[in-house]
């Protein structure tokens, strides 16, 4: 496993640079050299307010959500041994959206700002347990990845129908809010929300990183992994639950941001190979940098308005991915 | 059953409750220094028996023990340090180098976090050398021939440094030279004290290289014993439903006079 | 002639009218033609219309339900999105009056034309002169000092405001304020919180509640709002969206409410106690 440290170092530098640029630009331009003085309170006024209360929490949220989604995407691809696997393949986004849209349509969004993330999180957990129950009922004691995918697709389809039902009875304003939420955006970032997110992301990321070697062995089939001493069922269940919790927490605070969790793992695999000891931490760093770039573009490109971040991740991510795929094919 | 080795006693197993038995009342012991060849027609329960002995399947009746300890009570990584398995085939979704694939055999020794130390590298090099794969160690496994890839998978099992080695049709698809090399390797590993079980369709190589044979038919153990006990024409004709003539290996070689079964053209018997 | 450039011909004054535009429904009522209405939408919350059957939301009205009422005039949106509806209504021989309403002058035009179609020409003239008189009275009572900057929030999630060329932009100016997003590039721009904080308006007016609903200002706890000096100083006004977000006869009342509020704000400012703790008020609500 050569080159893990230098490659992760490269990504860390990329992430740091992106973060500095992202903190610096926006509605109010804050030169990189003035960031520290502004934080220390040596610069007053709206620039400091924007920096401390809006922009920095948003940058931190982008890092957490982008990292969590890409890490979860890598995990689901390893767990399900399916290249189409991504964080939302098992219906979590559908459950979260039902929770969030339900809160918005009920008109609670204006009165209780925390009701939307809470609703989304509860919905995501509901979807996770539902999919697990269905997969267990259909697949017996073993967690069969094919049954899991089918269960996820079916549960997701049901939730989508519920979303459409909710939207069709929504009034104009909550309809707008719901659509905006479902496209994914990071404008709800707060320090307290980020602290809550960190409670999931830090231990979740550590647990998933510990599964790197078992994931490598699982890629050779469950039989081979078993013969090499992997606790196959326990590993699969742990990976499923932890990755789902990461996605649930990310969706709760940022809505449904697509493509990060699909494209970043594949791009890294194309560039640096399938070894999970590099792939898992690299996914987190690259996913964080990618979402941060996308969110910065979303913030500034049509200023003073802003685009939903999920639109940028798809618009920028798909051509990038196709480029990597084609280049790989030519070689 | 004696303390050393892997032993399955009176094993019965079926894939569906109330379904047909895949393995019925079979006992098998993989003892140190001994090569045991499991033979039998397609669907006779050979692979199921191997999976029962490896712990991948739980017997419905009977028990499997490793050195007097029930196999199911041995933690997974401890088990993998003592039993190496070469399954019939495995998926290969991503490119991987020979060296990285063999390195997987060290997982039961390394666990989650420990970095490979000198001991681990030595075990890998030794395993690759035994299987003659070290000269293409950096190639992608996907670009190797069937025989080369099979040797790499045996090398991965050897890197586990097991005391028991279970192989499911390891010689399938290998050419004459590689078949002979593989069987010679297994025999010499047994000579160093390893207990080996291999599933094979090749009665004659089994008869020449295995110490003991186990002949399965429809899940039952039809015969077991030395090659001379098992490679007998009436017995084989009953199991395979085809006429055979057993002759002695003409030599030269250490296995001269081993019984060899030659299937006859059906016309001759009638 | 309607806003799609089509002539609307009626044999006589309309007697069975369906309006799927709430502001135009109110205009019909203001022209003293309430009894001509045969339906309402869920957004027409006026209790005096409650007896009418509701057609539901206005995004996709039920064509069969409209046809079943045998209207002799349908008032519909004039934008592309709704044109299949009006084409099918025309195919059934039901006259359609298309309206687009962005500015206060549009209200004048529709009052005159609808007054004509409803046989209420005199009422239209009277309504318009009354409207003009009330707006002029507001306009001609300026506040002392520079006009306070006003952020108008059409909806808070995602924040959307009223830009140039809208009746709300006009109302803010008539009421003696200055729309802080008067320079926006579109009529109803969605704006980022950072931009709002950067512009730091003197007053925040938010149409985040409907008739009869409370607004405890919970949405002000979303990130960024607390950084505004207007929010810190309690200069937020929660207004009834059914009155303010609707370019109908209510624009005069909206202008009067906003004018009165801005008068209080400028008075406090003139008193030199802009950030005085004693002058902080709870987020204002309008009866």
General description of the model:
The complex is a heterotrimer of chains A (331), B (270) and C (287). Chain A has helices spanning 4-24, 35-39, 46-80, 92-105, 115-139, 145-168, 172-183, 191-209, 212-218, 222-227, 232-254, 260-272, 276-300, 309-330. With 331 residues, chain A is mostly helical. Chain A has a single domain, classed as ABC transporter involved in vitamin B12 uptake, BtuC, CATH 1.10.3470.10. In chain A, 58% of the residues are buried. The mean pLDDT of chain A is 88. With 270 residues, chain B is an alpha/beta fold. In chain B, 34% of the residues lie in helices and 24% in strands. In chain B, the strands form three sheets. Chain B has a six-stranded mixed β-sheet with strand order 6-7-8-3-9-10, sandwiched between helices. A four-stranded antiparallel β-sheet of chain B has the order 2-1-4-5. In chain B, strand 9 and strand 10 (220-225) form a beta hairpin. With 287 residues, chain C is of the alpha/beta class. Chain C folds into two domains: 17-135, Nitrogenase molybdenum iron protein domain (Rossmann fold, 3-Layer(aba) Sandwich), CATH 3.40.50; 145-285, 3-Layer(aba) Sandwich (Rossmann fold). In chain C, 35% of the residues lie in helices and 14% in strands. In chain C, strands 4, 5, 6, 7, 8 and 9 form a six-stranded mixed β-sheet that branches. In chain C, strands 1-2-3 form a three-stranded parallel β-sheet. In chain C, strand 7, helix 8 (229-232) and strand 8 form a beta-alpha-beta unit. In chain C, helix 6 crosses helix 10 (251-270). Chains in contact: A-B, A-C.
